C-alpha cells in the first residue's frame, strides 16, 4: 500500500494520495456491482431480514440500487407492527430514530405509521425521548443511551422536520477537547460519522449565524479527526468505514474514496460483512448513498430485480465460557460472565480482548485461532 499524506488546508483537511484521483464520495462501477449484489442477496436471504425487526436493514435495502419488493414490503410491515405495539415503552431513542428513517426511506409518513388498526406518531415520540435524553444529560452528565444514539436522534428529527432546538443540537454535538465525553471514553469514528450526518442535515434548516458557525466548526473538527483515523482505506475500523464514508461524502471533503471502496469490496468475499447488520451499514456507501437520501426516494420507480438465494446456514461460533447474552442487531451481546452482570446505567460492559487489543467484533462472529489468548474484561465506558 502506498503511504498517505495529510495536509491541513485552511482549517480543513485535504487528503493527498500518490495514486488514484481525489473525489467527493463515490460508488461502485458496473463491473463491481455483482459484489454489492452478492451482499444484498445475503441480506435479503437472511433470517434477520426475513423474520427480524432491524430498521437499519430496511434503510440499506431502500438505498440500494437493486430491490426485492416482497422482502422490503414484508420487513416494513413487521417494523410498523412492532412500532405501534412496542415503540413507546421499549424502544430507545436511537431505535425510534432509525425506525423513522426506515419509514421515510419507504415513502411512509413517520407521523402516521399504522398497523392492525393502530397508529403511532414516531416523530412526536422521538421528540419526547430526545427530551428525556437531554434531561438525563443535564442531570447526570451522561445521556440515557449514548452520543451515537443522540446523533441519530438529531439526524432523524432533522430529516422528519420534528420540533427541536437547533442551537441545543449544535451545542450537544460539539466535540469536546479530548474527544472523550462524546465517544464512550475514546474517540469513536462511528459516533463522529453519525454526528456529522446530523449536523450537515441541520445546515439545511433556518439557523442563526452563530449556530451556523458552530456547526461548521464542529463538522470541520470531526472530519479532521476521522481523517486522522484513515489507514489504507479504512476509516477507524472496517465496521465504522461505511458510516464514515457517508459522513465524509456529505461534508464535501475531498478524500480518496476509491481506496476505501476498494478495501470494502476486497473484504466482502472474505465474509467480513456477512452479518446483515454489518452489511446494512456498508451498503449505502457502496451505492454512493447516504442517510440524508432517505427523504425523496421514488418508491414507485423500484424494479424488482433481486431474487433471494438462501445460503447454507453458518455454524454458530459462540465461545464457550459461562456467560449470559442478549441478542442484538450485531448478534449476541455479552451481558454477564460467571454471574457478574454488566449494567448500562453504571456504564459497565464486558469488553472482549485478544492480547490486550479490543476485538473489532462480538463473540458470535469472532473466529478464534489456535492458542489465541482471549480475555473478557469487566470495563467502564
Ligand atoms: C455504543 C456502542 C457500544 C456500547 C453499548 C452500550 C451503550 N450504552 O450504548 C459499548 C461501549 C458497551 C459497546 C461494546 C462493544 N462493542 Co460496540 N458499539 C456501539 C456503537 C458506537 C453504537 C451502537 C448503537 O447505539 N446503535 C444504535 C441503537 C439504536 O441500536 P441497538 O441495536 O439498540 O444498539 C445496541 C447494540 O448495538 C449493542 N451493542 C453495541 N456494541 C455491540 C457490539 C456487539 C458485538 C453486539 C453483539 C452488540 C453491541 O448496544 C447498543 C445499545 O444497547 C456501535 C457503532 C455502530 N456502527 O453501530 C459499536 C459497535 C456495534 N460495537 C462494536 C464492538 C466490536 C463492540 C465490542 C465487542 C468491543 C469489545 N472489544 O469489547 C463490545 C461488546 C462486547 C460484549 N459485551 O458483547 C462493533 C461491532 C462490529 C461487529 N462486526 O460486530 C461496532 C460496529 C463498532 C465498530 N465500528 O467496531 N459498544
Describe, in plain words, how this protein is organized in 3D:
One of its GO terms (molecular function) is cobalamin binding. Helix content is 45%, strand content 13%. β8 (331-337) and β9 (340-341) form a beta hairpin. Mean pLDDT is 89; it is low at 1-21. The protein has two domains: 12-301, Alpha/alpha barrel (Glycosyltransferase), CATH 1.50.10.20; 323-380, Ferric Hydroxamate Uptake Protein, Chain A, domain 1. 41% of the residues are buried. It is built from 13 helices and twelve strands. With 381 residues, the protein is of the alpha+beta class. The longest helix has 22 residues, at 69-90. A three-stranded antiparallel beta sheet has the order 7-8-9, with no helix packed on it. Strands 11-10-12 form a three-stranded antiparallel beta sheet, with no helix packed on it. A two-stranded antiparallel ribbon has the order 1-2. Bound molecules: cobalamin (B12). The site of cobalamin has 40 residues, from α5, α7, α9, α11 and α13. Cobalamin (B12) binds at residues 92, 94-95, 98, 145-146, 148-149, 184, 188, 190-191, 236-237, 239-240, 243, 275, 278, 281, 328-334, 344, 349-352, 358-363, 365, 381.
SSE succession:
EEHHHHHEEHHHHHEEHHHEEEEEE
Radius of gyration: 20 Å
Q: How far apart lie the N and C ends? A: 34 Å
Across the major sheet, the strand order is: 7-8-9
Please state the overall shape, judged from the principal axes of the Cα atoms: globular
The CATH architecture of the largest domain: Alpha/alpha barrel
**Uncertain spans:** 1-21
Number of helical runs?
A: 13
- How many strand units? 12
Q: So what's the oligomer here? A: single chain
> How many domains comprise the coordinates?
2
| Major sheet attributes | 3 strands, antiparallel
The CATH topology of the largest domain corresponds to Glycosyltransferase
Beta-strand percentage range:
5-15%
Bound molecules: cobalamin
- Determine the mean pLDDT: 89
Domain Transcobalamin-like C-terminal: 327-380
Organism: Alligator sinensis (Chinese alligator)
Signal peptide: 1-23
Protein name: Transcobalamin-1-like isoform X2
Amino acid at each position: 500500500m502506498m503511504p498517505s499524506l495529510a495536509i491541513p488546508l485552511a482549517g480543513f483537511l485535504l487528503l493527498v494520495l500518490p495514486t488514484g484521483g481525489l473525489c467527493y464520495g463515490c460508488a461502485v462501477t458496473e463491473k463491481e456491482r455483482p459484489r454489492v449484489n452478492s451482499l444484498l442477496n445475503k441480506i435479503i436471504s437472511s433470517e434477520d431480514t426475513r423474520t427480524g425487526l432491524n430498521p437499519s436493514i430496511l434503510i440499506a435495502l431502500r438505498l440500494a440500487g437493486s430491490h426485492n419488493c416482497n422482502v422490503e414490503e414484508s420487513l416494513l410491515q413487521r417494523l410498523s407492527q412492532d412500532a405501534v405495539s412496542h415503540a413507546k415503552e421499549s424502544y430507545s431513542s436511537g431505535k425510534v430514530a432509525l425506525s423513522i428513517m426506515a419509514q421515510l426511506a419507504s415513502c411512509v409518513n413517520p407521523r402516521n405509521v399504522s398497523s392492525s388498526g393502530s397508529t403511532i406518531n414516531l416523530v412526536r415520540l422521538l421528540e419526547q425521548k430526545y427530551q428525556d435524553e437531554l434531561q438525563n444529560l443535564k442531570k447526570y452528565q451522561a445521556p440515557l443511551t449514548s452520543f451515537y444514539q443522540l446523533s441519530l436522534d438529531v439526524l432523524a428529527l432533522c430529516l422528519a422536520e420534528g420540533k427541536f432546538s437547533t442551537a441545543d443540537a449544535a451545542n450537544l454535538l460539539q466535540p469536546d477537547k479530548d474527544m472523550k465525553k462524546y465517544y464512550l471514553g475514546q474517540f469513536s469514528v462511528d459516533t463522529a460519522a453519525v454526528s456529522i450526518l446530523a449536523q450537515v442535515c441541520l445546515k439545511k434548516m433556518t439557523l442563526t449565524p452563530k449556530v451556523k458557525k458552530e456547526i461548521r466548526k464542529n463538522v470541520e473538527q470531526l472530519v479532521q479527526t476521522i481523517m486522522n483515523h484513515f489507514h489504507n482505506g479504512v476509516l477507524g475500523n472496517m465496521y465504522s468505514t461505511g458510516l464514515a464514508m457517508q459522513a465524509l461524502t456529505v461534508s464535501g471533503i475531498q478524500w480518496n474514496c476509491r481506496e476505501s471502496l476498494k478495501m470494502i469490496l476486497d473484504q466482502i468475499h472474505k465474509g467480513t460483512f456477512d452479518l446483515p447488520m454489518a452489511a446494512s451499514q456498508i451498503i449505502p456507501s457502496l451505492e454512493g448513498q447516504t442517510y440524508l437520501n432517505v427523504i425523496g426516494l421514488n418508491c414507485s420507480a423500484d424494479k424488482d430485480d433481486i431474487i433471494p438465494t438462501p445460503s447454507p446456514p453458518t455454524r454458530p461460533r459462540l465461545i464457550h465460557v459461562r456467560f449470559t447474552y442478549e441478542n442484538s442487531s450485531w448478534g449476541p451481546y455479552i451481558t454477564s460472565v460467571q454471574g457478574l452482570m454488566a449494567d448500562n446505567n453504571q456504564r459497565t460492559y464486558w469488553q472482549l480482548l485478544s492480547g490486550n487489543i479490543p476485538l473489532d467484533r462480538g463473540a458470535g462472529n469472532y473466529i478464534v485461532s489456535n492458542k489465541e489468548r482471549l480475555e473478557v474484561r469487566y470495563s467502564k465506558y
